[in-house]
Amino acid sequence: MLLMVCVRLCLLSFLGGVLAHPFVPGPAARPHSLDRASKKREYSTTGCSSEKEVAITAPTKNIFQSLTDREYVQVTEFLHQQKELNLTAVVNSTSWDNVIVTLDLLQPNKTDALTYLEGYGPVPARYARATLQFNSQLQPYIQEYVVGPLPIKNGLTRYEELNYIFTSGHGRTKVYNADGEAIATFNLKVGTEIKDITKRLLNGTATGADDDNLLIAGSDPLIHSGDRIYQWNEFYSAHSGEFFSETILPSSLQFKVDITGRDPSKWEVVGWYYDGQYWPTTAAFRKGVKTLTRRPGPNLDGSWTSTDQQGGKLPRDQLYPPISVQPDGPRFGVDREQNYIEWMDFSFFISNHKETGLQLHDIRYKGERLIYEFGLQEALAHYASQDPLHASSAYLDTSYGIGTSQWNLVDGFDCPSHATYLNTTFYISETTHVHPNSICLFEYDAGYPIQRHLTSTYVSATKNIVFTVRSVSTVGNYDYLFEYSFHYDGSITVTVRASGYIQGAFWSGDGDYGFHIHDNLSGSMHDHVINFKLDLDIKGRKNSLLKTEFVPISQVYPWSDGQSINTMKVNRSYISNEDDSKITWAKNGVAAYAVVNKDKLNKFGEAPGYHIFPNSGSTAHLTVQSSSALGQSANWANHNLYALQHHDTEPKSAYAFNSHDPHHPAVDFAKFFNGESLDQEDIVLYFNLGMHHLPNTADLPNTVTTTAVSSMMIAPQNYFPGDLSRRTIHQARLTYNEKSIVTDKKTFGTKQPTCAYDMNKSAPDLSTFVGEIEIPKFPWNPSGSLQTNPGG
User: Fold this and answer.
1) pLDDT of residue 49
2) Could you tell me if 392 and 25 are in contact, meaning their C-beta atoms sit under 8 angstroms apart?
3) Which residues are in the Copper amine oxidase N2-terminal domain (predicted)?
4) Are 471 and 451 in contact (CB under 8 A)?
5) Residue 43 has what pLDDT?
6) Which of 13, 121, 131, 1 is nearest to 61 (CA)?
7) Residues involved in catalysis
8) What are phi and psi of 29, to 5 degrees?
9) Which helix (H) or strand (E) is 286 found in, with range?
10) For residues 468 and 482, what is the distance between their CA atoms, to the nearest angstrom?
11) By the 8 A CB rule, do 495 and 710 touch?
């Protein structure tokens, strides 16, 4: 049995030479043509629609998307030519070699970008951001470099350390798990030494043998105590069927390892835990096992972990459910080369990145910029438990890769069958990976009107059509659905939904940390906190943060005959500086916040802006205060909303490798706050989505997206002269007389399709699922592309 089957708990990553994938390897890789990597449906023009994609041309280059294939090759070769770096090709490397971890575009400075986007300057010079890991020493470390300008030119291109975007002052992070394979081997050695006990307690073994039925997974992040490095590990039952359910099959048997240094002969087991009891040594554990009065046994796989249909079928469920169609074809345009999209009067660019996945840029309405940048920064899952492994677990998911975890979307299920699909590409370990059809674009009818009103003589209603950009990232046991939606009224929502297997803990009779949800399974409590950056530019870069608050008052009015009237009023104030901008949502939702421009009042004297507020589901910040596991690595998680003055030296609230040294992170969000003014400055918002998740029986086998959802909306506030949704023709007004007979019907030019619709167009295409396409970059082999299963 493979040690690291589908369990994100395992800290071993590609940095240590072992990649913990949420899937077993697929079949042997086969040659693949990129020609069919992106799904573009086209049908005959008979019937309602040709479904032909609307191709458009972006007004400018997409200066935000990652490196081109040629740039990846050039930068890789350039770095290998720098003898002082002493790099080894990844395909030939060991855990003691220096390697290239990843390459991406170093995002342009905002001033340079806006100068180009507004037509006043040249395209910003392109620079690569190179993440290198130096393993050829006793203390391995990651160092970020900047390489450029691109393309590579002899005598012009240079490389240097990338330090200015890190609050620590340097882009260097110590790595304590570089010897991932050695750690895995050590843990299997421990499993072998106590296999007599695991057979007795768990009826299984984890020794590295083919007939193992247990596996071992470790806590993340590693535990730093003084100058020592520790990790808790737990034995899990291996799945016995088709479903990778290990994270709900804990055994409670855990051991703590001191893995300080790089010499495995000096590593040692320094503690054992089982079913609420602790022993400081293996000898004490062996002795204590003999006197155990309770031996509950492990959680075992079975039909309860299956996600297939089971149980009695629902009434009338044999009938095909409603579906959405686009009878006249897509109503949005796409420039695939530039990843540029237009829908109604919205336009924007998208980019995709290994750590953070989908990002939106230069979002405009009728050509006027609303948002410079909008995208995920980090996703945290922080656990709590009476057992040491879960008490030590706080996952920062960009370290695993939100972008690397975006896979082919399931047509008709992840997205409507009429959706348009885009590919994503990223670079890791000297190979580019193409994930076909991993972003989808589509319109849908929300099923309720965006506007409606009825009177004694008429009723009016307007369709609520929404345009959505969606991706799904499977990070270990959890699947995150990320989507950005655009609305007729000029508002934008970002939504995160979660599904997949929970990470359960062993039930030892204590309900303080979760419900008892299966035989020996506790629904281990945890917080999901998902951080986003939102850089609004309201009629320019100079903005302020307005707070409006409903407050109860008792007031005497000229008309109240001297009596106090108990009522309420609105208080307006501005958040004047960064130190006052760490915001927790007000009780009862009485306070609201908006980015406004005080220098460009509308004709009524009000400051135009966009306000931000929770939309659906729950929002959350971290419950734990001064987390022992996180140290200073996730200070962005402590409140709901933040406002900061923009600086090119502070491009992100988080860093993908903060979890390697959480008490000394390269990016400490708390250091962004230094009292700077927020009065008519270039303001950047950071906000958190998420939920406090206390899993119950409804989370088995998988959590469902109906309850695991969090959403934020930004909407115009005194920005436009009225409701923008009045511009759509897809509305109706019915006038009726005193006898309630309709005398007039206004449909404002809407033409109802009357053609026959071919239902085959709406049938999900489930035969084209592609895992990923890998293209080696060093040595460069453009004809050596391979198609593999996800994680294969």
Assistant:
1) 67
2) no
3) 75-151
4) no
5) 43
6) 121
7) 397, 478
8) -65, 150
9) helix 282-289
10) 10
11) yes
Strand, coil or helix: what is 200? helix
* Single-letter amino acid, residue 729: I
- The confidence score (pLDDT) of residue 782 equals 64
CA atoms within 13 A on the CB side of 442: 23
180-193 helix and 195-202 helix, angle to the nearest 10 degrees? 70
Per-residue model confidence (pLDDT) at position 50 = 61
Structure tokens at 586: 């007000």
Extract the runs of DSSP E, i.e. beta strands, from 488-543: 492-500, 505-506, 516-518, 521-522, 526-536
Please tell me the predicted confidence (pLDDT) of residue 780: 66
Spell out the residues 6+ positions from residue 212 whose beta carbon is closer than 8 angstroms to its own.
1, 204, 205, 206, 238
Biggest CA–CA distance in the chain, Å, is 93
Backbone angles phi and psi of 216, in degrees to 5? -120, 130
| Per-10-residue mean pLDDT, the chain, length 792 | 37 35 31 42 54 91 96 97 97 97 98 96 98 98 98 95 98 97 98 98 97 97 97 97 96 98 98 97 97 93 96 95 91 98 98 98 98 99 97 98 96 94 95 95 97 97 98 96 98 98 94 96 97 99 99 98 98 98 97 98 98 93 97 98 98 98 98 98 99 98 97 98 97 96 96 85 82 78 72 62
Cα 722 from Cα 730, distance rounded (Å):
18
The pLDDT, as a whole number, for residue 21 is 31
- The closest of 423, 465, 369 to 775, measured between CA atoms, is 423
Whole-number Cα distances in Å, 713 to 487, 644, 732: 10, 19, 27
Name the E strands within 3-81.
30-31, 54-55
Alpha-carbon separation of residue 259 from 232, 269, 270, 387, 609 (angstroms): 10, 9, 10, 20, 53
CB–CB of 722/730 below 8 Å? no
Residues of the chain with CATH 3.10.450.40: 69-174, 180-302
Q: How far apart are CA 428 and CA 781, in angstroms?
A: 15
- Rounded Cα distance between 497 and 707, Å, is 8
C-alpha Rg value of the chain to the nearest Å: 28
The DSSP 8-state label assigned to residue 83 in this structure reads: G
Structure tokens at 511: 């309900």
Question: Is 633 in contact with 222 (CB distance < 8 Å)?
Answer: no
- Cα torsion through 165, 66, 433, 359, rounded to 10: 80
Give the closest residue to 483 by CA, choosing from 502, 503, 467, 499: 467
Q: Can you tell me the distance from the alpha carbon of 262 to that of 138, in angstroms, rounded to the nearest whole number?
A: 7
Q: What amino acid occupies position 55?
A: A
Residue 46 has a pLDDT of 52
pLDDT score for 47: 65
**Closest residue by Cα to residue 37 from 780, 769, 790, 789:** 769
| Alpha carbon distances (Å) from 107 to 157, 373, 658 | 17, 11, 20
Dihedral sign of CA atoms 249, 255, 256, 260 in order: negative
Class of domain 180-302: alpha beta
State how far the alpha carbon of 238 is from the alpha carbons of 69, 199, 250, 384, 703, in Å: 39, 14, 10, 23, 20
CATH architecture of 69-174: Roll (3.10)
Q: pLDDT at position 95, please?
A: 97
What span, in angstroms and rounded, lies between the C-alpha atoms of 509 and 606? 59
Answering whether pTM is above 0.70, one says: yes
Choose among 136, 135, 131, 137: nearest CA to 172.
131
Contact 102, 132 (CB under 8 A): no
The CB-based long-range contact list for 153-162 (8 Å cut-off, 24+ gap) reads 157/78, 159/78, 159/79, 159/82, 159/130, 162/106, 162/129
What is the distance between the alpha carbons of residues 301 and 404, in angstroms, rounded to a whole number? 29
